[in-house]
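Anyone able to model this chain together with magnesium ion?
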Amino acid sequence: MASNTKTMTLIKAEDLSKNFRIYQRGDGIKGYLKSFVKREYEEVEAVKDLNLEIDEGEMIGYIGSNGAGKSTTVKMLTGILEPSSGTIEVDGRNPHKERKKNAMNIGVVFGQKTQLWWDLPVKESFKLLKEIYEVSDEDYDNRIDEFDEVLQLSDFWDQPVRKLSLGQKMRCELAAAFLHHPKIVYLDEPTIGLDVAVKERIRDFIKKMNRQENITVMLTTHDIGDIEDLCERVVVLDTGEKIYDGQLNSLVNRFTSRRLEMDIRNGEKFSIELEGIKEVNKEDGHVEIVFDREEISASDLMREVLDNYEVLDFQIKEPDIESVVKKVYNEGLED
Ligand SMILES: Nc1ncnc2c1ncn2[C@@H]1O[C@H](COP(=O)(O)OP(=O)(O)O)[C@@H](O)[C@H]1O
Ligand SMILES: [Mg+2]
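re: yes, here you go
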């Protein structure tokens, strides 16, 4: 990610689109028969003309409201789904055409879906993965020891997968995704439904893998903490289209307002008119000004206030990431 060192583009999607056809069938036998004659369908554009480049070693957050097309993107990048149009190159390969080779190179976690063998003890599941990914005995032993330190797999190493709690299962999924030293790991809602302690453990693990082995991570999550903790760069998807790609900080700056809160003598009489002020709220002597940081600086605003009023106390409140991400998930970013 550092601009002075040469970074390699690992994932490149160009004009990537995926449409789904949803066939509609009328009610009853008549509708059923009719559906053979005339196939009526609705076309859903799950992903539209997506351009995306991800460099080696990056950790990007891929966010957007439900149905935005996040999982569909991940499925195309992993080779599970074939794009309707556009191209994808992952480490020089077309992931769909070279699914097997691509699979050796990547790790994936899909929310609550498990890729482990339900009836097998965890230990046996991992032995199978070891064989599939052709991990050497020595490397395997080291890897499991190392993972155990952060994910504490030994707590349930001998238990069948189906007996594990959600948090334990997810710890296994994470370990499985990183077992074979993949270049890229795609995590689609890996912390959904987990308690804080498990989330933290999982984040620590992802961070460690990224720092230590430069593994590229693409993370889809509803959890603000995950994004704050792990991702410098975020991509925002809205009904299939990319509407933001950049630093998390700039996203926050761009889409939220700052607040200046003051206690002012005779504050109830306070009034101000300046470009960039979005809201003025007054209660007793307390005044809150919501302003757009792009249009007016806090110092200019402060100066204007101080010229006209006696300020007893003041505080500038920065926007919080939580409100931005909530906005992204709830309404998209476009005002
Ligand atoms: N297999 C499918 N068949 C039909 N429609 C689908 C299929 N998978 C996803 N969709 C639709 O594509 C859109 C994007 O879905 P998805 O990628 O799962 O969104 P997200 O992961 O952002 O919640 C949604 O409208 C969803 O209903
Ligand atoms: Mg999804």
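The mean pLDDT is 89.
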